[in-house]
Design brief:
Elements lengths: L7 E4 L2 E7 L9 E7 L9 E3 L3 E8 L2 E5 L2 E5 L4 E4 L5 E4 L6 E8 L4 H12 L7 H10 L2 E3 L6
Antiparallel strand pairs: 1-2, 2-3, 3-10, 4-11, 5-8, 5-10, 6-7, 6-9
Helix pairs in contact: 1-2
Length: 148
């Protein structure tokens, strides 16, 4: 058993804390926490080409959309986002929300979030072409927003 002290980083208005990545799990999973302030700007709706995600609510309420279904994930509740299905999340409530994400197989790692943070933190509005290029590099495909 090894203690995992993962990377902690800011990506725009979000915080991401990595607990394990493909290097720790022999490629099987990325496990990380996302901390979402109320009303924070969040990633665009997207789907993963080859990754499934299990989302566990830790604090607050995360509004989650998977495919055509929108629901709220509260502490202790779990949602599933299968590969190829568009999804999106937001914190529409007052107070901070936190969720734990287990993504299988491990594909993005902290590298993805570091690269997105670099584009978002470059000054001015984020360049959508550069964001899309980073997303595509790690198997994410942005999708047009769908009505709620």
């Amino acid at each position: 058993m090894a203690r995992l002290d993962g990377e902690h980083m800011r990506v725009g208005q979000l915080e991401v804390r990595f607990y394990a990545d493909r290097g720790h799990t022999d490629g099987h999973a990325d496990v990380y926490e996302v901390i979402i302030p109320a009303g924070a700007k969040v990633p665009v709706a997207h789907h993963h080409v080859d990754v499934d995600e299990v989302i566990t609510g830790l604090e607050g309420v995360v509004t989650y959309r998977v495919g055509d279904e929108t629901f709220e994930v509260r502490p202790g509740e779990v949602a599933y986002s299968p590969r190829g299905v568009p999804h999106h999340f937001a914190n529409l409530h007052s107070g901070t929300a936190r969720m734990l994400i287990t993504a299988t197989p491990g594909r993005m790692g902290p590298e993805y979030f570091r690269e997105v943070a670099e584009v978002v933190g470059a000054g001015g509005p984020p360049d959508p072409v550069k964001i899309k290029a980073v997303m595509n590099k790690y198997g994410l495909e942005p999708v047009p927003p769908t009505p709620a």
